[in-house]
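For reproducibility, we list the full input for the uridine-5'-diphosphate complex.
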Amino acid sequence: MAWSSSASHSARIVVEGQDPYSLSDTPVKVHDDGWQIAACPVNGPAVTARGDTVVCLDDLSSGRRSNIEPLTSSSRFTFVEACVLDPIDVEGEFEGVVHLASPASPRLYLMKPIFTLRTGAEGTRNALDFAAANSARFVLASTSEIYGEPLVHPQREDYWGNVNCIGPRSVYDEAKRYAEALTSAYRSAVGTNAGIVRIFNTFGPRMRPDDGRVISNFVAQALHGGPLTVYGDGSQTRSLCYVDDLARGLVAMLDSDAEGPINLGNPVELTVLQIAALVLELVGSASRIVSCPLPQDDPTRRRPDISRAQGLLGWSPRVPVRTGLARTIEWQANELRQNLAS
Ligand code: UDP
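The corresponding predicted structure, in tokenized form, follows.
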């Protein structure tokens, strides 16, 4: 497939992803500095920054086509339905490759363990080969999961982690750890301008309400008036980053030559019970909280040290969790209304 960019100064970027992270709550967002971040939230994230031309590859295995529909009218955006396990087959020269592809929700990656491992291994290799062939900047979306059950808190990038390499979550954790190793090897052996970001829990509108993650679940449950399912005693912590902040961090990483790894996340740490209470308050729901079994190897504490992102990328999150949650609830409520009406 051939395509061209009308803006000669702009970059051409391939973004791969099927259900990694929400990238923005609005399909196309013009920022104060004139940048445009076109986003395909939960699936097939795309970044059309400053008029960049973007090809987004996604197999839609966990994502939704509706998330990218608002982008398809842009001449600078092309969507290609393709699987990350196949070599990337798009014509033209590219300056950037953002490799986000992978199931990211525990519920989804536990349903597809082999696929998840192959995505991290073969998928990352295909993306790196494509970047190398184009002499493109490559950004790997890695994850806080590579720290496993961390014994160091907050997590700094020089901490090597504590992962159960045969536990259920290993299909995701080890796949991403391998992807980091492969990316590092391409940097040293092939000379690829590759960088790694480790993304902590991210949320926002357009996440699938049924993807099984904590925000999608709690918001859906509160909106339906059902009980909120807290796993374990709810004392485990997560740090929640709003999607627009994450998107800004990814673009900053793409624009830099930083090697990383660099943590991207919001250091505000909340227990799962606090998250549940916040959702109930913002929805205005009287739903009760029920305790469910804690999944095996569910990390007890998670909070990023973001001093590296601040120093190297000038990046910090800006959107408070409350604000992000209110936007997410509004979006999910609209989605629910539309579903009921249809
Ligand atoms: N969680 C929960 N109830 C749910 C979904 C998740 O208590 O309905 C907890 C889960 O046990 C974990 C945290 O919320 O401690 C975050 O889970 P999520 O699946 O969103 O992502 P993770 O950080 O585990 O990859």
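The first strand starts at residue 12 and ends at 16. Confidence is low (pLDDT under 50) at residues 1-9, 18-49. Both points were considered when choosing residues for closer inspection.
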